[in-house]
From TrEMBL:
Signal peptide (from-to): none
Any Gene Ontology CC annotation: cytoplasm
One function term, GO molecular function aspect: indoleamine 2,3-dioxygenase activity
Protein name (database record): Indoleamine 2,3-dioxygenase 2
SUPFAM superfamilies given in the database record: Indolic compounds 2,3-dioxygenase-like
BP GO annotations: 'de novo' NAD+ biosynthetic process from L-tryptophan; immune system process; L-tryptophan catabolic process to kynurenine
Catalytic function, reaction form: L-tryptophan + O2 = N-formyl-L-kynurenine
Organism: Canis lupus familiaris (Dog)
Amino acid sequence: ILCVHFQYTSNKIMEPPSQNLKTTPLLSLRRFHISEDYGFLLPNPLKELPDQFRPWMEIANELPHLIESRQLQARVNKMPLLSCQGLKSYREQRLAHLVLSFITMGYVWQEGQTQPKEVLPRNLALPFVEVSRNLGLPPILAHADLVLTNWTTRNPERSLEIRNLDIIVSLPGGESLRGFILVTVLVEKAAVPGIMALVQAVNAILQHRDNSLLRALQQLRLSIQDITRTLGQMHNYVDPDIFYAVIRIFLSGWKDNPAMPVGLTYEGVSTEPLKYSGGSAAQSTVLHAFDEFLGICHSKESADFLHRMREYMPPSHKAFIEEIHSAPSLRDHILSSGNDQLLTTYNECVEALVELRSYHITVVTKYLITVATKAKGRKPNHLPGPSQALEERGTGGTVVLSFLKSVRDKTLEAILHQSD
Ligand code: HEM
């Protein structure tokens, strides 16, 4: 059922082309808050909040030091309770969510993963939940904070490359954390031509313009390959030991996490603890959009997890995925067209996506699995350490490798054969 595309009625296809399109490509991107230049990245994120929020910004600006010297919890407890009423623009709200999410992760995990704080004080919990509700984001650090809102150019005239980029708010992890965030920013940027191609392709199907569809599919393949190349930059900027021992902890959530089995109590919000998954690029809209467009069918278990991750996206980006889902099926169109060139190019997109997912598995193996095995070997048995469950799970709390392999293998199953 998950993979059935709702078909536009056939009389819609008979209408003149101008009415076939509900909107032009550019207009529809704008409707979903997707930038032609930056894709799902927030264009030109703010670095400062209005003056009344200085108590938050002062803490945010020295987070790594406050956490490493274990002073953050005490500082937060003394923080004044501020209302989000003073946040006017969308970009201000996104920066506030970024800042409060980073402070929250630091607050919960300051003493390490074995002694998390299970109650978030009301002066942090109340404004965080308020701004989260306004934005339709969960009250935890999400990909939308860590990556989409957390980048700035040193020289706006120059292109986006690591040397010309910086992060806005930091956590422990130094240069490796900076590299981890900025390489992911560049991955989002590399996806932009692919997102544009996808919109062009959906419109080309509606208008029965197979040449335009073919060119769009070629562009999509190139963009997926560029994403894979960009992902490879992780190796140049991120140290696996630091990723595993430091960064991973601060991205961890409080759902399916044995370190916080009941969740986090947001004081003043709810008496029951709430459960939220940690930050992960599984919350990036890019691959969800490609999967929907290419008609990839994941197993029920993987699809359930991936669909949950959509709740961590800005609502307009989630709506974009749903829009692609309800557009006419690319696969059906290719099969009924009998156009071999379209079929071959479609398959090349699927293969490129399989290669991206295989490459991602080697990255995850290096940054999580291999380091975890090494850490286990070093640790004398009688000393307490992270539980086995923690080590085998990713920051988003899935049993990592089997999930990632299933997602990759199901992608491969989408390959079309002439006889289909
Ligand atoms: C050091 C770098 C990275 C590590 C260690 C890593 C780790 C993981 C883990 C553990 C998962 C499993 C789900 C979860 O626990 O949340 C996952 C899923 C995922 N990651 Fe990464 N990741 C890294 C970089 C990236 C980047 C840069 C991207 C951007 C394309 C990405 C895209 C995804 C996607 C889309 C999924 C969902 C599964 C899928 O659709 O194939 N990851 N990652």
